[in-house]
Amino acid sequence: MWGAEDSDEPLLIRTPEELDVLLERTGGVDHGDHGVLLEVLDAASPYRVVLNVGICLDRGALRYAGGEHTDGVYSKNPDSTAPASEVRLFYYMNNRRDFPANSLYPIDVVRRAILQFMESDGGLPAAVEWQQEPVSSSGTGQ
Predict the structure, then answer these.
(1) If you write DSSP's letter for every residue of 95-124 in order, what string do you get?
(2) C-alpha of 125 from chain center
(3) How many Cα atoms sit within 13 Å of 27 on the Cβ side?
(4) How crowded is residue 93: how many other Cβ atoms within 10 Å of its Cβ?
(5) Bridge partners of 64?
(6) How far is CA 48 from CA 20, 43, 45, 54, in A?
(7) Tens digit of pLDDT for each residue in 102-124?
């Protein structure tokens, strides 16, 4: 997993407990108007698929790219009242990444999706719904 602010090296997550520690540490930081983005890769073939995980306190958003989703798909929370056209801002190694505002889920759902990704050798997690909404960087950052 890439994206830890205090390291130039990837963090290898092998167990649910190790994932919990990372999510607690990452989610426990208030970044104000944006969240932090982690990049989850399959260690056996890191260039095949990627799961981007945006963390914002007790919520998170996902983007999956690989396989039949070469352009990527974003999580879509059916309970969200935010339109997909609004943007939620995350930063990955000081680079801005925009996600649809309706992509945010409670962190426990995001955790389940990450574990499904890990357990399926990089398969598309079924714990969340997905959308192919294009995201513009001209959004509000909310």
Answers:
(1) EEEEEEGGG-EEHHHHHHHHHHHHHTTSPP
(2) 12
(3) 19
(4) 12
(5) 51, 73
(6) 25, 10, 6, 20
(7) 999 999 999 999 999 999 989 99
